[in-house]
Amino acid sequence: MKKLLLVFCVLILSVSGVFAGGSPQPASANDWPQGPVTVITPWAVGGVADIVNRKTSTYGAEVLGQPILATNELGAGGNVALTNFLKNGPNSTNLIFGGEGAFSIAPNVDGSEALQFTYGDYEPIINLYSSIFVMTADASLGITDLESLRTYGQGKRLKVAVNGIAGSEAFLAKALFGELGLELDLISYNGANLALDAAAKGETSFAISHQSQAAGSVSAGTLTPVVVFDETGVNNDIFKNVKGVGEYGYAAYFRNRCFILARKGTDPAVIDKVRNAYLQILAKPDIVEFYSTLMIEVDPLTPSDMDRHVELVTDIVLGNL
Amino acid sequence: MELFIEGFSQLLNFQNFLFMNIGVLLGMIFGAIPGLTVILCIVLFLPFTYSLGPIQSFMFLLGIYCAGGYGGSISAILIRTPGTPHATATMLDGYPMSRRGESKKALNIALQASTFGGILSAITLLFFAPQVGKFAQQMGTPEYFLVCAFGLTIIAGVSGKSLVHGLISGALGLFIATIGLDPMTSNTRFIFNNINLYSGFDLVICLIGLFALSEVLGKSKRSEQLHAPSLASLRSESGRISKAEYKRIARPAIISTIIGVIVGIIPGTGASMASFVSYDRAKQMSKKPEEFGNGSIEGIVAAETANNAVTGATLIPLLTLGIPGDGAVAIMLGALMINGLTPGPKLFVDHGVTMYAIMIGLIFVNGFMYLQGRYLTRLFAKVIAIPTSILTPIIVIFCFAGAFSVKNSMFDVSVALVFAAVAYILTKLNFSTIPVLLGLVLGPITEENFRRALILSDGSWGIFIDSPISIGLLILIVFALAIIIRGKINENKQGLSHAQA
Q: Structure pTM?
């Protein structure tokens, strides 16, 4: 019995040891940060946000005087991490990523009743990057712009492959096809790469994805780019001749953005300190090159620009539910 | 041929082999410890690769990926707690072998089978990637669904003594797999306004509860505790495989490699499905099917060959089409992109030398996995000589830490405990827990592909007989069901004749 009790005590102590630890203590603005700064990616390891977080974090000690620890917390498309983040107080050294998915889409689709956060619970610091979506078509269809899309789509229900039925790509497709007066069936795939593959082999006619994801198939000629979801075209070798949705006079576009957020109530001096640190990081030549490789934009935005982005996307979502 | 030679010369670098071996060692350890996973290992060490070149980082990551596949079988064989989901099929025969004092032999068979499957898969990747890639392109949503439906027929083979019990367990797994967001409409299902249930249950957490923690619960009764073989008996066991045994396992090894490669090229399926399908096929084709579940060497070979045969094949859609086949490979996709390599049809054109270096390197990864495995299994085999009173708390700690580490969530620790309780009750009622795992593995991809196929066809069921591959798969399903029904009829007849006797 004594042996059993001993084993039980060792077990309890060990388990409590495993889960010991806690969030760093908040500090005053002047000496912030007193310890390492943790930046949480609430999405998958290996995704664009995760890669960018890990890459930019390597400059933490240089620009903030403390290391930046890039970490991930998964679950519910980022909503679990954003909920758990509310346990942090103002001036915490924990920061988190968020974007239109969490603040414009999630509150307006099924399951929103489970959300315990709003955009107002966070203090936007800087937009770490912007990614411009692109619509591509099965190359055999010969569709290369919105005019040929409109001609092709008259009287048809077009199948568009997207990464998740409640993702940014799905709402962009609905908004654009609505403005074009075309009917569509959204086909949800478990990942943008699968959606692109579906269009490349003719299972669907179109796919919407980030540029970097479509680049390989477009270069190989299995998919043709139709339009980029931005005001104008983009400046890279693969998609340089593709027009932006805004150039056609339509409003169905927004960029995918990745905000760095602090807990609401964080001292403005702390926000500025982090913002300036990241502005320095974003100016580093290797980061600029890295962004170019990933086909994402340095697009820091001001806090009010970020607020407007959330509002704009919310309007598009509400108009296309 | 020039690319091949140039790639080979780029690979022949001390650092490449060093990182490959570090990866193999880490993968084997993480795979072997219940609760720790290959994905966790890759995530933890991913930042380390950011300062490496594409060949070095890929050698390191592939080392983890391949050796993790084998590592999972170590704990499955020794302590009946699979370190990875796909090692569950290995456990079915590995653990009974271990209990009868053949731990070293079981580990040896698993290692050799893993190496065989891994090397053949790597060779397929190296020499037939374009052809296999083209075949993969012939398969779409309806074909993926039919492969999954075929996978569900395996439930009959792992149901234990009662097919009805197996079907009920499988249905329970399928039901649990529906919790979370609807894959086609994003409507919520059974989440009860709990944000933690939004994405359903992570497979690793279910595995920890269903097998590792439930095993601990099962052994908690003193009468049911494992009577571990002594260290002396372990030392006396040679672990050698005889010529006759090699002859016996040759056929399942080759068939399982083919199954592993085919399953590997289908996105979202993964090693668990490959190992169960192979296990089931090996049982159907064996001259001694009654040995399956009681320590059949064919069973271990089928499961282990198949799950490592997936490794090279999974890279085919990744490198040729940019489609990651499973979670671990999805992380590798990020590692490629960080090095400026965009996966897709032009990858071989733009970075042919690097690609050949990586593909040739995969063969070496498997070779080093064998060498390290041979040495390490001698150490691992000693685990079963550790007294249960010490080993059990250690397993529980790793299980809790592993469940917590998936999403840094205490909720998941509770989920693992609930699954453990469910598994314990099921076992007490003579229900096998393996069909539950199969339901969890196959449920989401079966549903998703079935519903997507019907949306693509505007509701027409004809989409499932539209291609020769679909028709072939349908014939396979009918054939598998016929075997199950015939087997059941024969069992009933035998039962009747025994009763009359």
A: 0.82
Q: Do A191 and B346 touch (CB under 8 A)?
A: no
Q: Do A10 and B50 touch (CB under 8 A)?
A: no
Asked whether residue A213 falls in the same domain as residue A230, the answer is yes
Whole-number Å distance between alpha carbons of B20 and B321: 25
Same-domain check for residues A154 and A190: yes
Q: Do A178 and A124 belong to one domain?
A: no
- Per DSSP, the residues of B270-298 read -HHHHHHHHHHHHHHH-S-GGGTTS--HH
Partners of residue B330 in chain A, C-beta under 8 Å: 44, 46, 191
* 3-class SS of residue A130: strand
Reference B41, options B69, B78, B76; nearest CA is: B69
For residues A242 and A142, state if they share a domain: yes
Interchain CB contact of A23 with B (< 8 Å): no
β-strands B188-189, B180-181: how paired?
Answer: antiparallel
Residues of chain B with Cβ-Cβ distance to A114 below 8 Å are: 188, 191, 193-195, 198
Over residues B252-257, mean pLDDT: 94
Q: How far is A269 from chain B, CA to nearest CA, in Å?
A: 30
pLDDT(B496) > 70: no
Indicate the number of domains in chain B: 1
Buried b (16+ CB within 10 A) or exposed e, A270-283: bbebbbebbeebbe
Would you state the pLDDT for residue A10? Answer: 44
Low-confidence ranges of chain A (pLDDT < 70): 1-29
Residues of B in contact with A159 (CB under 8 A): 456
pLDDT confidence tier of residue B499, bands split at 50, 70 and 90: low
B221 touches chain A (CB under 8 A): no
Domain count, chain A: 2
Q: B212-240: per-residue pLDDT in tens?
A: 888 888 776 655 555 555 556 666 667 78
Find the mean pLDDT for residues B381-403. 80
ipTM of the complex: 0.81
> Do residue B196 and residue A109 have CB atoms under 8 angstroms apart?
no
The mean predicted confidence, pLDDT, of chain B is: 85
